[in-house]
Amino acid sequence: MHNNLSRIFVTGASGFIGSYLHKIISQSGYDVICIYNVHAINNSTPSIKCNLQHESLYDQFIKFKPDTIIHCAGLNPSALIKQDDSMFYQFNRDATLNLANQFLKYCESNQNKNKKKFLNLSTYEIYGNIKDLNGFNESSSTNPLNAYADSKAQAVNEIEQLVSNSVDFINVICTNNYGPGQSNDKLIPVVFNKLIKNQKIIIKGDGSSQRTWTFVKDTCEGIIQALKNGKHKRYHLSANNQISVIGVIKAIHDILKSQNFVATDSARLTWHEANNNPIFKIDSSWSEKELNWTAKTPFSMGLKHTLEYLKKQRDE
């Protein structure tokens, strides 16, 4: 990273992407301070407890003088906790804009020769169902299909309206991420646990819904490139693979079968309810050139790494 990005505040550093990103930038020798609301990442990392929806970090900005904010914190849909739509707007829109505006206030009142950066991490679900096979590009309009995606889309659109000579506001749009350390309620860990227990896997719709799967290490490397090379723009990070839910399940089953972890010739599936099987897809070709980044991990390789991690976790 450039020297003017030496002190970095990271929100959501105890989460899936945030924890991986925190590890990479800490090992690179940069000053990292984590912002948390519920769980601090560890005792050795400087941390600040703050409710981003309501509290101001301005005094902490004055004290620690961060050059960069990486905003990974947010509320994702989960089967593990009860959620209502208002929670998505509170965590994903209101908290993001409060943080961005407080950082803008700090940057404009403490200007120096180095331009600061605020990076907001978001999801390709903000665009909704694809309109053509090429997917959405960085200038596409948002068209979210649910409250979660709408809350993220509103944050992205509002941040793009913030203009300052002292700070670049960057939106990084990700696809489905996967890898070691992902929450147990996400597709790959769920399928793994169901298969090794020979339990039925519940499929919503007909399983043809397609997603893009990007390995978490590749995404984090893309975020770092966006900090190095990004300007006041929107950037896409994608492995550019389109795999259906059924395809993911089959791939997991085949790997476990080859390793004698499962004995059945196919996964046991049960169909839950019909849905419209949306296809989410983004075109990252422009961003790859701008950021000098590309996803390096094939899905088959990333999936094997992930399953090895899940097997070790199971044995502990």
TrEMBL record:
SUPFAM superfamilies: NAD(P)-binding Rossmann-fold domains (SSF51735)
InterPro entries with a match to the protein in the record: Epimerase_deHydtase, NAD(P)-bd_dom_sf
Coiled coil segments of this chain: none
One Pfam family per UniProt: Epimerase
Signal peptide annotation: none
NAD-dependent epimerase/dehydratase domain location: 8-232
PANTHER family, per database record: DTDP-D-GLUCOSE 4,6-DEHYDRATASE-RELATED (PTHR43000)
Protein name per the record: dTDP-glucose 4,6-dehydratase
